[in-house]
Amino acid sequence: MTDARIAEVAPGELRLDGVLDYRSGPALRQAGQALIRKATTPAVVIDCSGVQQSSSVGLSLLLAYQRDATAAGRQLRIVALPGDMRQMAGVYGLHEVLAFDEAVAPPASA
């Protein structure tokens, strides 16, 4: 199993990496919330290109991050969402709720 993490890579830019599941979800939730609250930019971008695998926990995290950004008066933009997460978001109708960049992450190499 790969450790999951969310980290600030530049002001207002966060990178989400690893396997997003019930084991990594609670820590990612707390860390992401703290980073969004601490941001000083009007928008926060979450780069998901480092996500290796995700259950529905990954989408739950993104929704929670959206709530955090809204509460902090910031916009949230999600970039490089892996194809499987994008498909799940479509099934759940989240394209109207979350701001996804049109760029899709390349498929993970096996």
UniProtKB/TrEMBL annotation:
Family annotation (InterPro entries): MlaB-like_STAS, STAS_dom, STAS_dom_sf
Lineage: superkingdom: Bacteria
Domain STAS: 14-110
Coiled coil ranges: none
Stored Gene3D superfamilies: STAS domain
UniProt cross-references to Pfam families, sorted A to Z: STAS_2
Protein name per Swiss-Prot or TrEMBL: Anti-anti-sigma factor
Natural source organism: Stutzerimonas nosocomialis
